[in-house]
Amino acid sequence: MTQPAHFQPHPDLGELRYEGKAKRVYATADPAVYIVEYKDDATAFNGVKKAQIGGKGAINNAITAAIYPQLEAAGIPTHFIEKLSEREQRVKAVEIVPVEVIVRNVAAGSFSKRLNIEEGTPLPRPVVEYCYKSDALGDPLINTDTAVSLGWATETELARIRELALQVRDFLTPFFLARGIKLIDFKLEFGKLADGSIVLADEISPDTCRFWDAETNEKMDKDRFRRDLGGVEDAYAEMLKRVTQGV
Ligand code: C5P
């Protein structure tokens, strides 16, 4: 059981389409609509480290549901339709492009390790990286030639994905800074609608972004779990407060 006993799935839930480490995706009676359910499960190092973070599913659902409409308003198409319940949201049905997109403002994590650049070193221009979405392989770093050659996306789709990823960065970086948070890096996933157009899918949350307090550089994201820093639940709750209570 990954849900508290009082959790009542939404009556529109159809067949389970996909289960990832942090979410489940269900079909609905409408083929153009899915329901996403956020879990409390946390994993790191490709599933080697596992735990439950109390309230995480509800917090990540609420943060994503607060941010996606603002991205839409800024001209970035997303899969988001509406928040349905504490843990569920209604989204447009997409076929996920199996290319994870990482955007970096500041060196950290695998970038720092790979290139021996101290964490916290600002990058003079944002860096966009691509990984193959594969749990079995641990989401390996790829380039766009690999994605095109292996048929994961076309060159046109990848150009659109890069453009949208940088637009997300241009929106989110000042959005978080106004809330006392430095956006260090983040991961996005994109999907294709039935008409072939690309939309932002997945989530934007402390699971998928690095957030550092602008005053203290305190980590306010999943690195608290990955690196055993403690205070994971408090950091996630604080991020929700800053996102929803605004400037
Ligand atoms: O580990 P790395 O430095 O490559 O992570 C970059 C960013 O992408 C971090 O914000 C991390 O939370 C996110 N990420 C993710 N899912 C992955 C890999 C990275 O959300 N599979």
TrEMBL record:
Catalytic activities: 5-amino-1-(5-phospho-D-ribosyl)imidazole-4-carboxylate + L-aspartate + ATP = (2S)-2-[5-amino-1-(5-phospho-beta-D-ribosyl)imidazole-4-carboxamido]succinate + ADP + phosphate + 2 H(+)
Enzyme Commission no: 6.3.2.6
Leader sequence residues: none
CDD domains per UniProt: SAICAR_synt_PurC
Residue ranges of every copy of the SAICAR synthetase/ADE2 N-terminal domain listed in the record: 17-242
Classification via InterPro entries: SAICAR_synt/ADE2_N, SAICAR_synt_PurC, SAICAR_synth, SAICAR_synthetase, SAICAR_synthetase_CS
GO terms classed as biological process: 'de novo' IMP biosynthetic process; cobalamin biosynthetic process
Pathway named in the protein's UniProt entry: Purine metabolism; IMP biosynthesis via de novo pathway; 5-amino-1-(5-phospho-D-ribosyl)imidazole-4-carboxamide from 5-amino-1-(5-phospho-D-ribosyl)imidazole-4-carboxylate: step 1/2
Keywords noted in UniProt: ATP-binding, Ligase, Nucleotide-binding, Purine biosynthesis
GO molecular function, one term: phosphoribosylaminoimidazolesuccinocarboxamide synthase activity
Protein family per UniProt: Belongs to the SAICAR synthetase family.
UniProt cross-references to NCBIfam families, sorted A to Z: purC
Record-given protein name: Phosphoribosylaminoimidazole-succinocarboxamide synthase
Gene that encodes it: purC
